[in-house]
Amino acid sequence: DFIRQRASECLEIILDEKGGRLKLDTLLAQHQAITRRVIKTLLADLFMPRKEATYIHILAVEEFVRRRKPLSEMKVCRDWQIKIKDEYLMIEKYTGASRDAQVKGSGFAYEVRIPGQIRIAETGKIWDFRLIDKSADREHYASQNEILMDYEKIAPPLLLRTRRPGDRIQLQGMRGRKTIKNIFIDQKIPRHHRELVPLLVDHDSVIAVNDGRISERVGVSSRTRLILRIEII
Fold it and tell me: What percent of the chain clears pLDDT 70, i.e. is strictly above it?
């Protein structure tokens, strides 16, 4: 109760139709427990009203805030993003990838280690990779923002990267392979955003696309023993 009360006093935020702002000096001057509770309150009340904010979410936002990089942006959910501007933590409606990232348009590539996390600097998204034992008495279903695949069917190394010429994938449940370019066209992704869309790729091919669909080759089946669970935050 005390921490909740102190966090409420610290949370001097003004919300309107365009979002709001919070003084960085005020936030970072607090004890870490208060800072994290303020972040948790923001996530619970504004960004994730129907989903409990996890420790991973809180740490990701805290790391972003403590870096205090001017004009940096981080997408928190589908509709909202946070931004550092003029010594304030700004809360804004998400309108697309950052202008700087769009201008660069050079793509990215991150090596995946399991278990582990990757924060894509170009988009502000975090990909969390974990292994799960598939017990005989439990069914595993991917929830929103999750991807599940058979770990033993993956051909390492794993990369989280943007598209390259010739990229194709045989989507689960479909016959034949489809080019990533055509998938982006089907999804109506603007051309200037396509160089910022992450793909999960192993040694052989693309195995997951940005909307959570995976390759037929790595699908979970009754014979699966180890599940690779990916949460996109």
Answer: 81
